[in-house]
C-alpha cells in the first residue's frame, strides 16, 4: 500500500455556541491556528507524551458546533493553504446544524439530510430543534476509490434517563443514518461516519449505527477490543483518555473539572468505518492540550484515526448479511453464526420498537396537557371578556384593573394560540414521523423472523 492510500481523519465538536460558550472566539481561533500548524497550547502534565506534533496533520477534518460564521471565516482563511477545500452546511432557523468539512482532498459533492425527528420546539433552552440537526454528506475520490464521509451531531441527552434523555429521538436519527449509510455502501462508496453522536458504546443508537455495516475505528485500532465501561469508569482520568478514548465529561477537560465526577467520563465522538474497505492503523483522542489563560480547546476532546484503503480487488466479492437482511432479502441463512447475527438484529430492532412505543405514550400525555392548557386559556380569556362587557364602559373601572385585565387576556390568548399551533403543526408531524419509523421497523422484524424460521426448518 502506498502513502496515497492512507487517510487521516479528525472529528471535533468545537463548542462554538455564539454568545453562550465561554471564550468561544479565543478557543475557535486557537483551534484554527493549531489546524494551520501553529503551536498555541501546552500539554496536560498527565498526557505530556500522549499526542505528538505530527498527529495534527490531517487529510479530512469534520467539525461540529460551528455556529458562528465569523468563526468559520477565520478557520477557512487561516487553513486555506493547508486545507484548501471546505464547506459549511446550512439548515434550521437558528445558526444551522453547525457541521463543516475541511480537506486537503478535492470535494466531489456535498449533500445535507435533515433529521425529520429532532427534539421539541417547546424545548427552547435545548436548541436542537431550532438548529436543524442533520447529516452532512461529503464525497471524495482517494486512490481511485469513491469515499463518502457522513458528519453529524445527533440530539443531545440532557439526562441519563427519562424524557430529558431524548433516547427515542436519537435512536430514530440513528435509524435514518443506518439507511443513508447503506444506500451509499450499495452504490460502491467506501463509507465513513464521524461526529459527536451523543451515544455511548453499546447504547441503542450506537448499535443501530453499527448495524449499518460499519465498525468502530477505535475498537479496530485495538484489535476489536470492546470498551469495558465499568472498568473505564474506575481508571484514572489520564488512563480513561488513553485506554478508553473518553472525549467527553473527563475532569482533565477544564470545562468539566468542576461539574463532572471522575467516573462520568465517556466516549461520544466516533469514526465508524466500512471495515470491508478500510484497515485502521491507529486511533486516539486529540486536542487535549490547554490554551494558556483560557483552558481546553472545547468541552469535548477530539478524535483522530488513520485509515488505509484496501485494494479494491480484495473487497469486490465481499458480502454482508446485514445488507441483505435489512432490505428484506429472504435468501437462506447458511450457518449458525448468521443465525446469531439475525437474533442480535431482532433484539436491536425490538428495543427500537419498544422505545418508540414508550415515547408515543409520553406524547399522548404531553398532548393531553397541552390541549388542557389551551382550553383553560381560551375559556379564561372568554370569561374575562364576558366579565368586562357586563361591567359596562371600561372607563368606569380603575385603570390598573383594566390594564391588568387586558394584559392577562393578551397573555392567555397568546398561550392558547401557541399551544394550539404546536399541537396542530408540530405534534401531528412528529407523531406521523414516529409512526412511519415504527412501520419500517415492524416490516424488517417480520422479514428477520421469517428468515429465522426458514433457518430453523433447514
From TrEMBL:
Domain Endonuclease/exonuclease/phosphatase: 10-300
Transmembrane segments: 373-390, 402-426
GO MF annotation terms: inositol phosphosphingolipid phospholipase activity; metal ion binding; sphingomyelin phosphodiesterase activity
Membrane topology qualifier: Multi-pass membrane protein
GO process annotations (BP): cellular response to hydroxyurea; ceramide biosynthetic process; regulation of mitotic cell cycle spindle assembly checkpoint; sphingolipid catabolic process
Descriptive protein name: Endonuclease/exonuclease/phosphatase domain-containing protein
Sequence similarity: Belongs to the neutral sphingomyelinase family.
Amino acid at each position: 500500500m502506498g502513502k496515497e492510500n492512507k487517510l487521516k481523519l479528525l472529528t471535533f465538536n468545537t463548542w462554538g455556541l455564539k454568545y453562550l460558550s465561554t471564550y468561544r472566539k479565543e478557543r475557535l481561533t486557537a483551534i484554527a491556528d493549531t489546524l494551520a500548524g501553529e503551536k498555541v497550547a501546552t500539554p496536560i502534565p498527565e498526557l505530556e507524551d500522549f499526542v505528538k506534533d505530527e498527529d495534527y496533520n490531517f487529510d479530512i477534518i469534520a467539525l461540529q458546533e460551528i455556529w458562528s460564521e465569523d468563526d468559520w471565516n477565520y478557520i477557512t482563511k487561516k487553513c486555506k493553504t493547508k486545507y484548501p477545500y471546505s464547506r459549511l452546511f446550512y439548515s434550521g432557523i437558528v445558526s444551522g446544524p453547525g457541521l463543516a468539512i475541511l480537506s486537503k482532498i478535492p470535494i466531489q459533492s456535498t449533500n445535507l439530510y435533515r433529521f425529520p425527528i429532532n427534539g421539541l420546539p417547546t424545548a427552547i433552552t435545548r436548541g436542537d430543534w431550532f438548529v436543524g440537526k442533520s447529516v452532512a454528506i461529503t464525497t471524495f475520490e482517494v486512490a481511485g476509490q469513491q469515499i463518502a464521509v457522513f458528519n453529524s451531531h445527533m440530539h443531545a441527552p440532557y439526562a441519563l434517563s427519562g424524557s430529558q434523555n431524548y433516547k427515542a429521538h436519537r435512536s430514530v436519527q440513528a435509524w435514518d443514518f443506518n439507511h443513508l449509510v447503506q444506500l451509499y455502501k450499495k452504490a460502491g462508496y467506501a463509507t465513513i461516519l464521524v461526529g459527536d453522536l451523543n451515544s455511548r458504546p453499546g447504547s441503542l443508537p450506537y448499535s443501530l449505527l453499527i448495524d449499518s455495516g460499519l465498525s468502530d475505528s477505535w475498537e479496530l485500532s485495538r484489535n476489536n477490543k470492546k470498551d469495558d465501561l465499568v472498568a473505564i469508569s474506575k481508571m484514572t482520568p489520564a488512563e480513561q483518555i488513553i485506554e478508553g478514548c473518553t472525549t467527553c465529561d473527563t475532569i482533565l477537560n477544564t470545562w468539566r473539572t468542576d461539574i463532572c465526577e471522575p467516573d462520568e467520563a465517556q466516549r461520544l465522538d466516533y469514526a465508524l468505518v466500512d471495515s470491508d474497505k478500510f484497515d485502521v492503523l491507529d486511533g486516539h483522542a486529540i486536542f487535549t492540550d490547554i490554551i494558556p489563560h483560557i483552558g481546553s480547546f472545547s468541552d469535548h476532546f477530539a478524535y483522530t484515526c488513520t485509515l488505509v484503503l484496501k485494494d479494491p480487488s480484495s473487497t469486490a466479492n465481499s458480502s454482508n448479511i446485514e445488507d441483505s437482511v435489512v432490505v428484506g432479502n429472504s435468501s437462506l441463512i447458511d450457518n449458525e453464526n448468521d443465525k446469531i447475527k439475525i437474533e442480535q438484529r431482532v433484539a436491536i430492532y425490538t428495543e427500537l420498537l419498544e422505545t418508540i412505543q414508550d415515547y408515543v405514550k409520553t406524547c399522548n400525555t404531553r398532548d393531553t396537557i397541552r390541549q388542557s392548557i389551551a382550553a383553560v386559556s381560551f375559556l379564561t380569556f372568554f370569561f374575562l371578556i364576558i366579565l368586562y362587557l357586563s361591567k359596562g364602559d371600561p372607563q368606569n373601572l380603575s385603570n390598573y384593573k383594566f390594564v391588568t385585565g387586558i394584559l392577562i387576556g393578551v397573555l392567555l390568548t397568546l398561550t392558547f394560540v401557541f399551544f394550539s399551533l404546536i399541537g396542530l403543526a408540530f405534534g401531528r408531524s412528529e407523531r406521523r414521523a414516529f409512526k412511519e419509523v415504527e412501520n419500517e421497523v415492524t416490516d424488517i422484524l417480520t422479514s428477520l423472523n421469517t428468515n429465522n424460521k426458514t433457518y430453523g426448518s433447514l
